[in-house]
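For homework, think about our next protein:
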Amino acid sequence: MDMAVVEMSRLQFALTAMYHFLFVPLTLGLSFMLVIMESIYVMTGKQVWRDTTRFWGKLFGINFVLGVATGITMEFQFGTNWSYFSHYVGDIFGAPLAIEGLMAFFLEATFVGLMFFGWDKLSKLGHLFVTFMVAIGSNLSALWILVANGWMQNPVGSFFNTDTMRMEVTDFMAVIMNPVAQAKFVHTVSAGYVTGAVFVLGVSSWYLLKGRFLPIARRGFVVAAAFGLAASLSVVVLGDESGYALTDNQKMKLASLEAMWETHPAPAGLTIVGIPDMEERKTHYEVQIPWVLGLISTRSLDGEVTGINDLVETAKVRIQRGILAYDALETLKADRANVEARAQFEEYRADLGYALLLKRFIAEPRAATAEHVEQAAWSTVPDVPVLFWVFRGMAGIGFFLIAFFGVAFWFASTRNFGHRTFLKAAVVVMPLPWLAAEMGWLLAEYGRQPWAVEGALPTFLAPSSLTMGQIWTTIIGFTLLYGVLAVIEVRLMLAAIRHGPDHTPPARDAGRPDTGPATGPATGGIAPLPAE
């Protein structure tokens, strides 16, 4: 496979995936915030909460449509750009995607129409149930997508079938309960909840600064502050769980994001800053906190975190063993009844994928020299500086948002909605959760390289047989199309925000200063929310 085609195929998929993921976190976050807001409306009967729910639901709908449109493109690419991947692991990888479409997406798509058009046709409880089902559908979609992605990171419950020359499922429950997939799911949806909370808090703060739609703005501020604080704390806790999952399943990714070249005595220290050097294979000017990495990664004082150099040595051994599996497999292709070859393959089958790494450097793995094995072993190391700094950027934003929501929660608890410096900051920080989410996906996918399926299928063997011209055509096409969609999305969202919430006719609460028409600006500046 031409490596230029491989890299351009990766670039195209990265661009479409990261563009799609601009919409997913906000969908996840807004869905459950709508449930909270509508639940308050059902319990209190206050019209202002109905107006609040409908307003944020309108923004949810605009974002939802773009998320669906860009997500469909993603699945098509497995057939158009990654056909060998689809052939090799499609029996496993396709199952969660099919379930996501049948169980989650259809559920979500069915109820989303009722959520938008059923306000005057359903009872309060009936409409709340519909909104809840939309939120459940959104999160189930994320679950099944991350089950598929988690299997690529840790291919449990499967084996390579020598008769079909493909990987097949042996234990679908193991695929579902994959610890990497479960950790990624809870961490990803929590990040989505943070994104939704930052968005609601930012827009509410803008209204408060402008003195517009104050009943809606204050309630949005309160819900976002509480929901965001809980979500931001959970992101850090569940991110720690993701790190723990790496210890057993993706040791090279863990060592690389920590720029840990040597195996240190347990418990290993956590590097806060440093300058990783891929050529010298060391980290310059590193500043460490003793013990922290060992405690996070192993949950113990004596658990060892293996360094990059030792993992490369392990890879060399696995490549040598993989060559034996590859040799036996080639024999079985010619003579499937060969008992000795069958026994040899079964003994070394777990390392077959490592022999395939050699195909990047030599056509026939069985003819590999020590130099080829060395090259293949070092190819298992991803770009350490990129992972090192991306992880620190993501973690830094995460801890900042905890503090940010802590301050927001204090203001919400004391009914202080007039701190203009904080309100301006809430508008400015709105892009941060999206940036952290994109960093998280970059860390997860870039850190998995050189594998399309960890330990089983190298990425350079996975693409379709395309030409550079074909890939450039689709990249340019997607860029133009998505650019137009981005402009439409932003214009629709800004127009909806400028227009503000629509006042709906049903009876309102009389005598309350902040339950008047939600579409009209309140007077008297930014007043506290009356106690309820």
